[in-house]
Amino acid sequence: MANIGKKNRLRIVKSVDFGVYLDAGEHGEILLPRRYLPEIWGVGDKLDVFIYLDSEDQLIATTQRPRIMVGQCAYLKVKEVNDFGAFLDWGLSKDLLVPFSEQTTKMKEGNDYVVYCYLDEDSDRIAATTKLHEYLDEYGDDFKPRQPVSLLICGRTDMGYKAVINNTHLGLIFKGDAFKPLRYGQKVDGYIKAIRNDGKIDLCLQLPGQEAKKELADQILDHLKAQGGVSSLTDKSPPQEIYEKFNVSKGSYKKALGALYKRRMIVIEKDQIKLV
Predict the structure, then answer these.
(1) Is 73-133 a CATH 2.40.50.140 domain?
(2) pTM of the model
(3) What is the rounded CA–CA span in Å between residue 269 and residue 261?
(4) CATH topology for 7-62?
């Protein structure tokens, strides 16, 4: 069965002057316009296509890949606002609508927003919403502490940063765990820090505990060896320089240096560190 708003692999069943028709199961035959065909094709071949409603509300296929599909979140720009709502640039000729009823605040032309893409089951229309909490799960039964996840920063509160987890859930990065500046719409890798008693999800950008410390210490030693045994990246270096090199906070870096120093594996000087 073909899924509207998602990637499908469908068979070419008929060729016409303006394109080909694909077998979309219960949806019947769907047109793929000729301009989207690959250079080499034939009746009976299967193609990867995206299905959506065109401007005349007819199902149509394209080999273009939109920036967001049904069930996903993305950070998209508003191209136009009119009487129907806000229209987003998602990489297709027909823009993606965010109805006024699906906007937490009135969207403005030229601004970017984190949205969730959904399918209106009654009309088969693909639309988007900024009301993420109505579509994404806030409870972490599907996750375990220390599990790696993909994050999309979707808001900020007094406690920290709200983030979309793997397109399916919402969680929170507390200020103390955000050792680098985060911006709305930014994609980052992270981890499940803990599942709270109320079931909600706490996130972090680096693994806590001895395992992470050991891994960082090994990275520092490898870095020193690659630099001929000497590095200017010390415990006094700016946090951003440390993050760019090791993807950790300055505090974590200083602790790893201290551990290596205690094991007499490095010497820490004012403007450099050296292998022993």
Answers:
(1) yes
(2) 0.78
(3) 11
(4) OB fold (Dihydrolipoamide Acetyltransferase, E2P) (2.40.50)
